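job 3f2a | input accepted
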Amino acid sequence: MFFNFKLFFQQQFKALFKSEGTHFRLTGKRIGVLLVFYVLFPLVELANWIGFLLDDLFFFEYRKQRVNHPVFVVGNYRSGTTFLHRLLAMDKRSFTAMAGWEIFIAPSIIQRKIMRGLLAVDRALGGHALALFDRFWQKNVQDQVSFHQLGVTEPEEDEGILAHIYSGVIPWNMFPVMEDGVPEYATFDSSLSEREKQRVMTFYRRCVQRHMYSHGESKYYLSKSPSFSGKVDALYKTFPDAKIIYLIRNPLEMVPSQVSMWAFKWNVTCSPLDSYPYEDELLEMIKYWYQHPLERLAEAPEESYLIVRFDDLVADPEATVRRVYAHFGFEMSRRYENRLMRHTRRAEKRAKKRKSKYPLEEMGLTEREIAVYFDDVMRKFKFSSGEPQRPRVRRKLQRREKRTTRHAIKEERREMKRRVRRSRRAMKRPVKDSV
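job 3f2a | predicted structure (435 res):
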């Protein structure tokens, strides 16, 4: 059986009977969240597992489905993984990726067929049901989340698939039980037994095969999940011809952003004792997601991976995507090329308006502490250890420095000419005889 019942019941026991004095203590708000979870989660998963069973009965050919050269976008949260993933996913001729609804409520083939049938009926009747759901989602979910555009119909994180077997980082959002440190699933390659890795990756591969069976094997499968940074080795073993894109961002920018993101999640599902809980565990996880992928990719063939800097992606998204295509030998159609140019222009305009400042003091952090803790990454990629600067800001400063330098040189030359002229005038003056 794929579902991790042992972990599920362990977490429920601690959440109900060992929560006093913890960040997931039982308050009125927490009890309400748990009641919603205990009603919805079993119902959704019962439907999903019935779907999986029916797939094996009626669509058993999916297990023979090939998954050729899948592409995995990994990297720490808040490092640009979503942005790059969705830019690539716009090329529907080359790639196919799981949308949010396919991951969470229709992971099986038969569920997707039923959903598409219902959507077709709704469209024929004017599309009112879908429009009503969109308004509900925007008002009650998306408007509450500023750091991420949640995608019901957009490509989303494959990590969500592992929630169906309760074997990933997703349960951590709801049950942050960390008295023993970072959860083992966050450091997948290093912490789990080979048997456990095999169980998880076999389930994941079958879900990818289901998706390819539904969408056609002529496309490349495209995945994105920051938590997959902890299972780079498992990805290579499960998909030997995998292509991996690793996003890297300055820790001084990424760490506060990620700590803030997790704090938001835990303040929704729990009643933490601190505004920014589990700081030490987060820093440990972030460091592993920096170091482990780089160590594993260093052993892989160069043509199988690409490291992309966040600053380069933000400064010129189009050039970054072209670099991905050139490195892996993908063919870019004219239609996608035009769409990419239009989309990146809009993204650049939105980026200009986006300003995020995080209260490091409230988080119990300083820039110096972050720089020292992630010293190896800072030195390897020559990240600035001062206040992080956006690429556009850096270019302005560089131009200003050049202008200042040119001005100083001109002033120095003028001063030299003035000295020469004064010297010549002094030499022409008559010398008075001394008395």
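job 3f2a | The chain has two domains: 20-377, 384-415.
job 3f2a | closed
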